[in-house]
């Protein structure tokens, strides 16, 4: 399995990184990763016109897109699009931040899992 990590470097610029998560066969229940400790979970709904200029993440957190997609732009101008079911780890809690906007003009739901 994979997720995308969004992080800031020592100069404060944001970058994307693809992270592979090893999975281990656990019998009839399938394949599982190691456990990740979490501090809390939060449900979120964005309005159809969501388009947020440069900002940093409020905390290190996984974002799971439940429905709808987003486009994220790093401080260096690199853009990536993410769709329903994808997972992003945002870790740019300092630095120049990133921009986020809905791919479609419709309400979008996601799940924040703080680590």
SSE topology sketch:
Layout: E1 2-8, E2 14-20, E3 24-25, E4 31-32, E5 40-46, E6 51-55, E7 61-67, E8 70-74, E9 79-82, E10 87-90, E11 98-102, E12 108-114
Describe this protein's structure.
The chain has 115 residues and is an all-beta fold. The protein has a single domain (2-114), classed as Jelly Rolls (Sandwich). Helices cover 0% and strands 54% of the residues. The protein is built from no helices and 12 strands. The strands form 3 sheets. It has a 6-stranded mixed β-sheet with strand order 2-1-10-7-12-5, with no helix packed on it. Strands 6-11-8-9 form a 4-stranded antiparallel β-sheet, with no helix packed on it. Strand 1 and strand 2 (14-20) form a beta hairpin. It is globular and about 45 Å long.
Brief sketch in words of this structure:
0% of the residues lie in helices and 54% in strands.
Shape: globular
Helix/strand order? EEEEEEEEEEEE
Annotated CATH topology: Jelly Rolls
Helix count, DSSP H or I runs of 4 or more residues? 0
Query: If strands are numbered along the chain, what order do they take across the biggest sheet?
Result: 2-1-10-7-12-5
Specify the structural class: mainly beta
Main sheet summary = 6 strands, mixed
Q: Give the total of beta strands.
A: 12
Give the terminus-to-terminus CA distance: 19 Å
Strand content: over 45%
Mean of pLDDT: 97
Number of domains: 1
* Low-confidence residue ranges: none
Query: What is the class in the CATH system?
Result: Mainly Beta
Helix content range: under 10%
- Radius of gyration based on Cα positions: 15 Å
| CATH H-level homologous superfamily name | Jelly Rolls
Q: Oligomeric status of the shown chains? A: single chain
CATH architecture: Sandwich
């Amino acid at each position: 399995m994979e997720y995308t990590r969004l992080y800031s470097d020592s100069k404060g610029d944001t970058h994307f990184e693809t992270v592979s998560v090893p999975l281990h066969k656990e019998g009839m229940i399938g394949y599982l990763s190691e456990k990740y400790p979490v501090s809390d979970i939060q449900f979120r709904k964005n309005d159809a016109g969501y388009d947020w200029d440069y900002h940093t993440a409020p905390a290190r957190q996984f974002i799971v897109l439940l429905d709808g997609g987003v486009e994220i732009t790093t401080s260096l101008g690199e853009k990536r699009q993410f769709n329903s079911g994808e997972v992003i780890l945002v870790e740019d809690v300092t630095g120049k931040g990133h921009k986020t906007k809905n791919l479609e003009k419709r309400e979008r739901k996601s799940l924040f899992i703080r680590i």
